[in-house]
User: What shape does this take?
Amino acid sequence: EAQVTQNPRYLITVTGKKLTVTCSQNMNHEYMSWYRQDPGLGLRQIYYSMNVEVTDKGDVPEGYKVSRKEKRNFPLILESPSPNQTSLYFCATAPTQGRGTEAFFGQGTRLTVV
Amino acid sequence: KQEVTQIPAALSVPEGENLVLNCSFTDSAIYNLQWFRQDPGKGLTSLLLIQSSQREQTSGRLNASLDKSSGRSTLYIAASQPGDSATYLCAVRAGNSGYALNFGKGTSLLVTP
Assistant: This one.
């Protein structure tokens, strides 16, 4: 079964404590991306990756890092989380560099930074 | 930058009604348009994908149309049911930011029994 798996699903953490949200896909997709969803602002892209070792900034990259060492995994790293990073996070994937193809989303990670 | 707008922001209809959700986008140079459903606090479920060369797509009671030249898409839901209550999101894939999906803010639909 095609899957995009995010972990954890829920996380409450304190300001400044480094954390990683993992994203894994089993569809051999080249393109992976992270979005955050906030009330009134909708979904905004944080970072994306066109393939292994190729990453680039989206619209709201400040405070985040990513890496793409393997095709199936695209972790989102918050080195020093702050309360304004409290949000619902989604990982998305698509094949063939994502141009004309359907995007698939993970189930989301609800992050609260206190 | 591609701007995506969804109207109305919220909609309440009685069960059984047919309804139309609207999506507009500012740049017609898109690769495709995708409609999603999101239940409160949950993930995104893909409903329909329309390629830029297509005019419409159908899946069950759902029909999505695309008029790329005017920058508009509609999602038609026939014979609505309470289980259709959710937020519906429209997203267009364009050439910016590695072919990112540009999302509208969604239409929150409530279907009352």
Remarks:
- Chain B touches chain A through 24 residues (CB under 8 Å).
- Chain B has a mean pLDDT of 93.
- Residues 38 and 79 of chain B are 19 Å apart (CA to CA).
- The radius of gyration of chain B is 13 Å.
